[in-house]
Structure formats: structure tokens, C-alpha cells
């Protein structure tokens, strides 16, 4: 077989493929991308993002280009059988831990164009649109893709390949990887409407979950005048028929008439909960919808795909740069599937729990659900931040020493001597391995750890107190933060800091840290 021409080949150029190409491309790797479609999908599918993903966009340098197409996510209010409020989901209160609004709604096509425009500036990334990957084969040295372009075939060689080619992934199918069914399968109609001023005056000011047994339904307030309904399709209804404009307007008649706006999209789907049994096969990795699908009740579908490639990207980079070799390299690449599969399974379980509140079809059980939720909060509905539903990492490349912080996202504080000159932590420290020290903790005088940035938090320069509060809550002196912003582990005291990096260095095959 020929020597690989590219470092990584990416099949599929949706959001996960775009972010993967950008993350690897800006590190200087030669990347090849193939995509069947000639342009971004013109109608929005995903509608929400969270602050973890905005932090990734910051790393890529595109967050400012994306910001005009986002707005803060409104509260989501859940109403029960008799129209009473039974739950309210919100976002965490300021100061925001990741440096961005914790939950946003967005318009997908221009966001994807901004990501693709960034990738187009990277001369080491080759993107082929309007082509199809027909066959994939791998050997000890790399992966070979057979690409069909306008009836002509050529091959592409890469050291590794990432399948970002969607729910019906051709790569996953060719590899024979099965999907595990997590027991959720329901037909729903998704409707996007561009609502005029007359229609907006009729609609709620917040997003709403109508937990009504006769027809569960969701209303999401999107950017500007974009409103989305997700409407349950009842047994006996024809999914194609309900997706016709005439039937769609009938279902929307509770809220709007055709004079109140313009249908942007209406499509029937089966919402699934599926996860791939394998996320890596040799030199090929699955990511995004190729690896998992979950119900939409917390709007985490696109977020999950970007988490996948953010996790995988730095690990591939470390192996391809020779920072991690041999058994450590193989273990590091295996940790991708270990971490992400468990995270997806747990989050999907929690999303299904949210869905169970929304989707109960039995009136008596739904009324009992309402009573139980209200009893649990003493009759006063309290805010439940959406971010509290997201799990930590529980396995993979993490410290063996358990703590509440291990596997969680480390915050991104605003740092500086004044509000005028403040910057987010990643703008100062970058996105490699970071040893973040609590206020008053002295940095090791010297360390042999490669590519480890030490960030000393000074209380007076932690302008919102985000990092200071985090260290106080976790009662630790330092946190070792991975390139994907997850906490490898923490040191309880200054004397434990060297051992913390030694543990990570051993897992990565690095020389141990030896403070002078």
C-alpha cells in the first residue's frame, strides 16, 4: 500500500466534520474531507448549543463570526394535564462558568458557513464536495478511501479516518458496527415557522413543553422570528400526511394561522436513542450522528457531535505528533470511545427521563406525574438549570483518585486587572494541558513536563470570581485540565501537585514532572 498522503481523512462535512477539520487543520495536519452535498443543508435541523461548544468555537477563532446568529435560550416551562406549571428549566445564573451564555439558540446554515469559511483559510485542509466515499479499507499504516467524483474514481490515503457521515453512515455500515438500541422510538413532526409580528403577539414569551397526553408538543423560541414546534404523531396518523402544509397548519391552529407566518420546514421523523457498540475500529473512528442518536428534548444532538471531535482531535494530534507512542498511544485513542460512549449513554438516559415527563400518554399517569413533581418542590416550581443535567466523564483518561471535580468541565474565568483589559482564560493560556493553581498556591519552580502551561489564579484578577469559587467548592489547590477542557484530576494540597502530573504523564508516556 502507498504511504499516506494525508494525516486524517474525514468522511462527511456537517458540523462534526467541520469542527474536526478545523481543529486538526489549525494544528498543521494535512486533512482531507469528502462530502456528498455541494453546500450546507439550507434548512435548520439543530437549534440549540451550549457554552461548552461556544468555548470550542472560541478555540477555532470563529465565535465572533457565529455570535450574530445566536440568542440566549429562553426558559422552558412545562405544563401538565390541567394546564398547570409543573417544571421550569433555565440556565445557570451569572457569572457564567465557561465565559459564554450557557444555552443559546442559533440558526444552523450561517453557523455552518462560518465554520466552513474558517476551514477554507487553512491551506493544509483539502475539501471535496459533491463526491461520495464508496469503499474504505485499512492496513497497518493507514486508511484508503475510494472516492467517486462525477463518475470517476480516485483513492485517498490517510493515517487515520473519522466517520462524520451521519445517522446512515456508510463507514459504519462497511465496518459492520452495530447500533445499540436504548429503547426510544417515536414519530414526531418538526415544524419551523418564520412568524410575522401579528403571529409573534399570539405566542408565549418563553419556550414551552406541553406535557399533554392527547398530543405532547414542544414550542422552542429560536433566533429572531424563528419558532419551532415538535409535535407528537399519534398512532394511526400517517407521518407523510401530517407533514403536508395543510395538515401542518391544522396542527398549528392552536397557536397560529397561515396569515401569521411562513412555513420554513415541516418534516416527520422518528426520534431514536441509539449508540454505536464500537467507536474505533483500527485506524477508523466514528463521531457525531454516525456514532449516536438521541431524542431532542434537551437539544444536545449537535453538541454531542462536537464534543466527540473535540475529545478525539487532541488525542489524534498527540499521537500523530509523536508525543504519545506505543501502548500509551493505543490506550489514548481507545479512551475516546470509552469516554464518549459512556457519556452519550448517560446523557441519553437523562434525556429520556425528560422525555418521559413530556410524553406520558395515559391521563391518570400524567396527572400522577404532575402531582409528584409539584409535591417534590413543595408546590413551588423551582428553576432547574439545563447544565445540571449534563454528566461528567467517568472513565478513560482520568486520574485514579476520585473527586467531585474529576471528569467535569473546568471553568473559563475572565482574567485581568480591570474589566477593560480582561480576557478569557483560554485566550491567555491556550488549549493544551493546563495546570491551574488556586489563589495563593505557589507554582512549581521547575518541571520537565512537556507542553504544560501553568495558570496561577490571582483572586484580584479573577474578575467574576469564577475560578476562585470553583477551587473553594472543590477544596483543592490545583486542577490538571486536559486540552478538551475536562479535569483530569485535582491536587488537594501543594505537595500533591507533582504527583498529579506524574500520574497523567505516566498515562501519556511522558517524562515525569520533577519540581525543583
Give a concise summary.
The protein is an alpha/beta fold and 516 residues long.
Layout of helices and strands:
Blueprint: E1 6-11, H1 15-25, E2 31-35, E3 48-50, H2 51-60, H3 63-66, E4 70-72, E5 76-79, E6 85-90, E7 103-106, H4 108-120, E8 125-129, E9 132-138, E10 143-149, E11 152-163, H5 170-175, E12 179-195, H6 197-200, E13 207-210, E14 217-221, E15 226-232, H7 239-242, H8 245-252, E16 261-276, E17 280-281, E18 284-286, E19 292-293, H9 301-320, H10 326-359, H11 363-376, E20 383-385, E21 414-415, E22 423-424, H12 425-429, E23 433-437, E24 452-456, H13 466-474, E25 478-481, E26 487-491, H14 497-508
Parallel strand pairs: 1-2, 1-11, 2-8, 5-13, 6-20, 11-18, 23-24
Antiparallel strand pairs: 3-7, 4-7, 5-6, 9-10, 10-11, 12-15, 12-16, 13-14, 14-15, 16-19, 17-18, 21-22, 23-25, 25-26
Helix pairs in contact: 1-4, 1-9, 9-10
Q: What labels describe this entry?
A:
516 residues; alpha/beta; FAD/NAD(P)-binding domain; Glutaredoxin; eight-stranded mixed sheet; 14 helices; globular
Notes on the protein architecture:
Helix content is 30%, strand content 28%. Among the domains are: 218 residues, FAD/NAD(P)-binding domain (3-Layer(bba) Sandwich), CATH 3.50.50.60; 111 residues, 3-Layer(aba) Sandwich (Glutaredoxin), CATH 3.40.30.120. The strands form five sheets. Strands 19-16-12-15-14-13-5-6-20 form a nine-stranded mixed beta sheet, sandwiched between helices.
Amino acid at each position: 500500500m502507498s504511504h499516506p498522503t494525508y494525516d486524517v481523512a474525514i468522511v462527511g462535512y456537517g458540523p462534526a466534520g467541520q469542527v474536526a477539520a478545523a481543529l486538526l487543520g489549525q494544528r498543521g495536519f494535512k486533512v482531507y474531507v469528502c462530502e456528498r452535498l455541494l453546500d450546507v443543508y439550507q434548512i435548520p435541523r439543530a437549534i440549540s448549543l451550549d457554552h461548552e461548544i461556544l468555548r470550542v468555537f472560541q478555540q477555532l477563532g470563529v465565535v465572533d463570526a457565529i455570535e450574530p446568529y445566536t440568542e440566549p435560550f429562553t426558559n422552558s416551562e412545562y405544563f401538565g394535564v390541567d394546564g398547570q406549571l409543573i417544571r421550569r428549566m433555565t440556565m445557570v445564573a451569572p457569572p457564567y462558568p465557561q465565559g459564554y451564555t450557557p444555552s443559546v439558540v442559533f440558526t444552523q446554515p450561517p453557523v455552518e458557513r462560518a465554520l466552513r469559511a474558517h476551514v477554507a483559510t487553512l491551506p493544509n485542509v483539502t475539501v471535496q464536495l459533491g463526491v461520495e466515499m464508496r469503499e474504505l479499507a485499512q492496513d497497518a499504516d493507514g486508511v484508503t478511501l475510494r472516492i467517486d467524483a462525477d463518475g470517476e474514481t480516485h483513492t485517498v490515503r490517510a493515517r487515520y479516518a473519522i466517520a462524520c457521515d451521519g445517522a446512515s453512515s456508510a463507514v459504519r455500515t462497511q465496518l459492520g458496527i452495530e447500533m445499540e438500541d436504548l429503547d426510544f422510538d417515536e414519530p414526531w413532526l418538526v415544524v419551523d415557522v418564520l412568524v410575522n409580528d401579528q403571529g409573534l403577539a399570539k405566542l408565549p414569551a418563553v419556550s414551552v413543553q406541553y406535557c399533554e397526553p392527547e398530543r405532547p408538543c414542544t414550542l422552542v423560541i429560536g433566533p429572531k422570528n424563528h419558532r419551532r414546534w415538535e409535535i407528537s404523531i399519534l398512532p394511526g396518523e400517517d407521518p407523510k400526511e401530517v407533514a403536508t402544509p395543510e395538515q401542518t397548519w391544522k396542527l398549528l391552529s392552536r397557536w397560529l394561522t397561515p396569515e401569521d407566518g411562513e412555513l420554513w420546514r415541516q418534516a416527520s421523523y422518528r426520534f431514536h436513542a441509539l449508540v454505536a457498540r464500537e467507536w474505533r475500529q483500527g485506524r477508523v473512528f466514528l463521531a457525531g450522528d454516525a456514532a449516536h442518536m438521541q431524542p431532542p428534548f434537551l437539544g444536545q444532538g449537535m453538541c454531542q457531535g462536537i464534543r466527540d471531535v473535540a475529545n478525539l482531535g487532541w488525542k489524534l494530534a498527540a499521537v500523530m505528533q509523536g508525543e504519545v507512542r506505543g501502548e500509551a498511544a493505543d490506550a489514548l485513542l481507545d479512551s475516546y470511545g470509552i469516554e464518549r460512549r459512556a457519556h452519550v449513554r448517560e446523557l441519553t438516559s437523562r434525556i429520556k427521563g425528560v422525555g418521559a415527563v413530556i410524553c406520558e400518554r395515559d391521563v391518570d399517569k400524567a396527572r400522577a406525574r404532575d402531582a409528584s413533581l409539584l409535591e417534590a418542590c413543595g408546590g413551588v416550581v423551582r428553576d432547574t438549570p439545563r447544565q445540571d443535567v449534563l454528566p461528567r466523564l467517568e472513565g478513560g483518561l482520568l486520574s485514579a483518585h476520585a473527586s467531585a471535580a474529576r471528569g467535569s468541565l473546568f471553568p473559563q474565568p475572565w482574567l485581568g486587572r480591570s474589566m477593560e483589559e480582561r480576557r478569557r482564560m483560554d485566550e491567555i493560556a491556550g488549549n493544551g494541558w493546563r495546570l491551574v493553581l488556586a489563589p495563593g498556591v505557589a507554582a512549581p519552580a521547575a518541571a520537565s513536563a512537556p507542553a504544560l502551561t501553568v495558570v496561577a489564579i490571582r483572586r484580584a484578577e479573577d474578575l467574576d470570581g469564577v475560578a476562585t469559587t470553583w477551587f473553594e467548592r472543590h477544596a483543592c489547590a490545583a486542577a490538571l485540565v486536559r486540552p478538551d477542557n475536562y479535569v483530569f484530576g485535582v491536587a488537594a494540597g501543594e505537595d500533591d501537585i507533582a504527583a498529579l502530573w506524574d500520574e497523567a504523564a505516566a498515562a501519556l508516556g511522558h517524562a515525569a514532572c520533577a519540581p525543583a
